[in-house]
Amino acid sequence: MVWIEADRSSSLEYDSFFRLPKIFGLLNGVVYNDEKPSSKWSKAKNVYFWISLMHSILVAVLELVYLAKSVEQNADFVFIMSLVPLVGHGILAIVKLSVQKYYHKEINSILISLKGIYPSTLDDTITKDYSKKILYMKLFVIFYLVTLIFFNIVPFAPVLHTYFTTGVFEKTLPFFIYYWYDWRRPILYELTFIEQIWVSTASVVANMNIDLMLCSLILQISMHFDVLSDRLSVLQHNDHKELAKCVERHSVLLDLCLRVENIFSRSMLASFLLSSVIICLTGFQVFAQDSINKAIPYATFLFLHMVDVYLLCYYGNLMMEKSLAVSNYAYESLWYLGNRPFQKSILIILERGQRAQKLTAMKFIDINLTCFKTILSTSFSYFTLLKVLNEPME
Question: Most CB contacts within 10 A, which of 138, 221, 252, 310?
Answer without folding.
Answer: 221
